[in-house]
Amino acid sequence: MQAVSAVDVYSPLSRKRRSAVAFSAMLLLASYAAFEFGMWEALATTDADGDGLTYGLEFYINTQPQDWDSDDDGLPDGWEWQYGLNPLSASGDNGSTGDPDGDAFTNLNEYQYSIPSGWDSPSTPSVLDNGVWWNGTVPTRNWDEESAMQIIQGAGSDGA
What does each of the 160 residues of the chain score in pLDDT, given as a tens digit? Predict the structure, then answer.
């Protein structure tokens, strides 16, 4: 058996080997970390259940990332979150039968009526044309559609 001297352990060649091994280990760990965090970033920005919320936001607000409707009220989690409802509660104003804006439309009606693209066409329900203006997704009460469409409107109390 050959004895290892202190000179052999600290020789320049041995130091280079240790440095190379340490550098290789750091590269492997850095590559793994970049790959792992890259996967987390991609996962956090995807929306596999199609509810309008990314995985990152679903994790933050504690909804189910694999279920488009965490509280089973018929409204997508993303829609509820966008309009200030609680996507984890199906009761009261947060549920499908709630009416937090007091416009006589339930949340489910508002969600369903926001789907048609031609809100002012004859094929849409007449309820959409009777004083309710749809700004793309949410009905606004007390909107006079006919007056808003006029180029010239009366300025005084006599309408002139």
Answer: 566 555 555 566 677 788 888 878 887 877 776 666 655 555 667 788 888 888 888 888 889 888 999 999 999 998 888 888 899 999 999 999 998 888 778 889 888 877 544 444 455 555 444 444 444 445 544 445 555 444 444 455 555 4
Helices (H), the chain: 6-9, 12-44, 55-61, 77-82, 107-113, 145-149
CA distance 70 to 6: 67
**What token pair was written down for 67?**
């279920």
Measured CA distances, 65 to 12, 22, 48, 71, 143 (Å) = 55, 40, 8, 12, 37
Taking Cα atoms as reference points, which of 107, 105, 110, 129 lies closest to residue 119? 129
Asked whether 61 and 86 are in contact (CB, 8 A), the reply is no
**Residue 142 · residue 136 · CB < 8 Å:** no
Q: Is the pTM of this model over 0.70?
A: no
Question: Quick one: tokens of 144?
Answer: 């006079």
